[in-house]
């Protein structure tokens, strides 16, 4: 687990830093405790030295050699109470040991504290070291002088073995406490890291499956936290990608069918005409070929428009225009078709509307697409109503039919690329998406409302052209709307013509 990745970085950074901090803390505390203990021992010995010096001063009234020897001997033998804790010895002017509190010959090792006492101004020398027996001790020597002349010295020796053992015990306790903290931090950290890494690994594995095209995979959500939200996001993404993939496949299948139908008709009539036919049959065949060629051309143009929109290459040739003229022409184009299919196209003509600033061909393309949809999704005997009016500073064009309608579940997605609400009717599923994009490029809005089984209403709202600066603003808005989409959008929605070849 700690080989690489987040776990290793956490272990190195967190545990490593805590370990260094604990080592520094334990070392500092150990040194402080040792210094404090040794300082306490030194203070205690110094107090004993001062006590003996006061005894000498009171007992003799002055420091003479004979009195020094007798008084120190009397003090050590009769009044020194800490023989079990420390050793006291009296030394002559030459450094000869006169008497010890233990009654044994002293260790004949060098006495650095004695030399220091003779050399120091206050007559005191301290030393910490080991005796010849290996025992660690602290020794303090105080030189006793009488009117500047050396009378003798007093030396106290205390074993540090017990103090060191106590300090070692304290250090062991501190080390064990530090190890406990490290273990607690490690186990809690491992648990926490696992609670992150396990879901992340599941998410990573699911993401790889999604990248390979398995959009049915879902990440199991264990907790409702940030990772849970990430799981929800990945699941939602997989669902959206799956839906997009299905729509794309349906679109490719639909477009392939739409392309195959006119091509089949054209090929069939071309072979018929090649074999020879009478005048009436030839006229009928040519009519079918021309109609199907126009249908095929329109479908290809629709695909090209969609590709231009996706890549941001569609630009508007905008100018001042009369929206009624374009609407009249579109109505005229579809009147005969509606009558042929036994449907009625009613145009509630308005006498005058304010001009708009837009692309004549693109707006006509929108009207043609919407009229085609209205007729296509209406049953024989249905009525399609077209109207236009000026509402405030906007032009509203409304196309209403009483055809098959759109279900409430499909209505929010009808302007989605590749989506087809009704697969029983011909169409590529991108016409309405292209129309919506074109209207947005004009600074307008395309709204669809529908009730299944009752009909559909499409409302186009376009801003009117009031002043020259208005046209500039609309042109800028159209340019912004035509900007290339994000890489993700192009990747998800751009039509892949190579897929069509495989279908």
Question: Can you give a write-up of this model?
Answer:
With 503 residues, the protein is of the alpha+beta class. The protein is 57% helix and 17% strand. The protein is built from 12 helices and 12 strands. The protein has helices at residues 6-60, 65-79, 112-119, 161-211, 226-275, 279-311, 323-340, 360-376, 431-441, 468-481, 487-493, 497-502; strands at residues 87-91, 97-100, 124-130, 136-146, 149-159, 318-321, 344-348, 356-359, 383-391, 394-401, 445-451, 455-463. Strands 2-1-5-4-3 form a 5-stranded antiparallel β-sheet. Strands 7-9-10-12-11 form a 5-stranded mixed β-sheet. A two-stranded antiparallel ribbon has the order 6-8. Helix 4 runs parallel beside helix 5 (226-275), helix 7 packs parallel to helix 8 and helix 8 (360-376) runs antiparallel to helix 9. The chain is rod-shaped and about 160 Å long. It starts with 5 loop residues before the first helix and ends with a helix. Residues 469-503 have low confidence and may be disordered.
Keywords:
5-stranded mixed sheet; 12 helices; alpha+beta; 5-stranded antiparallel sheet; disordered C terminus; 503 residues
Radius of gyration: 51 Å
Strand segment count: 12
> Low-confidence stretches at least 5 residues in length (pLDDT < 50)?
469-503
Distance from first to last alpha carbon: 47 Å
Mean of pLDDT: 79
Largest sheet: 5 strands, antiparallel
Number of helices: 12
Q: How large a portion of the residues is in β-strands, by DSSP E?
A: 15-25%
């Amino acid at each position: 687990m700690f080989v690489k990745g987040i776990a290793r970085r956490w272990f190195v950074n967190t545990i490593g830093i805590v370990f260094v901090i604990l080592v520094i803390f334990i070392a500092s505390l150990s040194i402080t405790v040792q210094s404090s203990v040794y300082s306490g021992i030194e203070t205690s010995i110094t107090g004993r030295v001062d006590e003996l010096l006061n005894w000498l001063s009171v007992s003799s009234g002055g420091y003479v050699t004979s009195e020094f020897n007798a008084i120190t001997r009397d003090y050590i033998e009769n009044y020194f109470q800490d023989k079990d804790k420390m050793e006291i010895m009296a030394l002559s002017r030459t450094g000869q040991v006169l008497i010890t509190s233990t009654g044994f010959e002293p260790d004949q090792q060098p006495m650095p504290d004695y030399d220091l006492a003779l050399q120091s101004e206050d007559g005191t020398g301290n030393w910490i070291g080991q005796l010849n027996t290996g025992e660690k001790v602290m020794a303090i020597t105080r030189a006793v002088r009488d009117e500047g002349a050396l009378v003798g010295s007093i030396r106290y020796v205390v074993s540090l073995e017990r103090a060191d053992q106590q300090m070692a015990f304290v250090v062991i306790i501190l080390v064990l406490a530090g190890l406990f903290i490290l273990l607690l931090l490690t186990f809690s950290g491992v648990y926490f890291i696992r609670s992150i890494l396990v879901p992340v690994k599941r998410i990573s594995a699911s993401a790889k499956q999604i990248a390979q095209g398995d959009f049915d995979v879902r990440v199991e959500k264990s907790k409702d936290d940030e990772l849970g939200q990430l799981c929800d996001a990945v699941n939602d993404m997989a669902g959206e990608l799956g839906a997009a993939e299905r729509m794309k496949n349906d679109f490719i299948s639909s477009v392939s069918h739409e392309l195959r139908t006119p091509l089949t008709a054209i090929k069939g009539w071309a072979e018929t005409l090649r074999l020879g036919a009478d005048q009436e049959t030839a006229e009928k065949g040519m009519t079918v070929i021309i109609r199907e060629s126009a249908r095929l051309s329109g479908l290809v143009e629709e695909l090209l428009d969609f590709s231009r929109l996706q890549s941001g290459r569609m630009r508007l040739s905008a100018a001042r225009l009369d929206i009624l003229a374009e609407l009249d022409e579109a109505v005229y184009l579809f009147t005969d078709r509606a009558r042929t299919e036994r449907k009625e196209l009613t145009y509630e003509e308005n006498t005058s509307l304010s001009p708009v600033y837009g692309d004549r061909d693109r707006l006509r393309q929108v009207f043609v697409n919407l009229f085609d949809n209205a007729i296509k999704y209406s049953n024989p005997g249905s009525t399609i109503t077209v109207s236009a009016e000026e509402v405030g500073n906007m032009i509203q064009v409304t196309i209403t039919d009483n055809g098959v309608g759109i279900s409430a579940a499909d209505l929010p997605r009808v302007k989605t690329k590749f989506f087809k609400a009704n697969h029983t009717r011909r169409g590529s599923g991108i016409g309405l998406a292209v129309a919506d994009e074109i209207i947005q490029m004009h600074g307008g809005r395309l709204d669809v409302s529908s009730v299944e089984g009752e009909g559909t209403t499409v409302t186009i709202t376009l801003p009117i052209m009031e002043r020259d600066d208005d046209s500039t603003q609309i042109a800028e808005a159209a340019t912004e709307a035509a900007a290339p989409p994000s890489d993700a959008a192009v990747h998800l929605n751009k039509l892949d013509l190579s897929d069509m070849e495989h279908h």
